[in-house]
Amino acid sequence: MKRILTALVLGLAAQGASASEDDIRKVRAAGDVAATMDALESAVTGAGATVFARVDHTSGAAGVDMDLAPSQLLIFGNPMLGTPAMQANPLAGLYLPLKVLVYEDMQGQVWLAYEDPEETLDDLNGIDDDAAYIARMRGALGNLTATAAGG
């Protein structure tokens, strides 16, 4: 019986891990990580949003003598998009502002990646999957990453 329960728990844990990765949207980029991140930051500010931070994961790793393929995270937001979600449930503030990761995979391909806002906020009470602000966040992320991806 203990083996069956262990197998069930492990199976459910594995299922949860694969489901969350399915919620991540990836866009192939034409440039390197730095140029793609520059293009993303420019697109974000050009759209009237605020960039709160640009995190260089590779530099962080180098600071502790570890190697990491080029990887940067942009944290940005627009109160017109995020405030309605936080009005519906203040805990949405744990997941906002929005984030986009630009990274190089093991084959040398550069990607922009972000979690679908519907999935990010899905488990919060009061957040409607069909809310206009979710559609606007999804549209903004799609447009910004497509612009930054280039060619």
From TrEMBL:
The keyword Signal applies. InterPro entries: DUF302, TT1751-like_sf. Residues 1-19 form the signal peptide. Keywords: Signal. Transmembrane segments: none annotated. The keyword Signal applies. Residues 55-117 form the DUF302 domain. Pfam families: DUF302. This is Uncharacterized conserved protein, DUF302 family. It comes from Roseovarius pacificus.
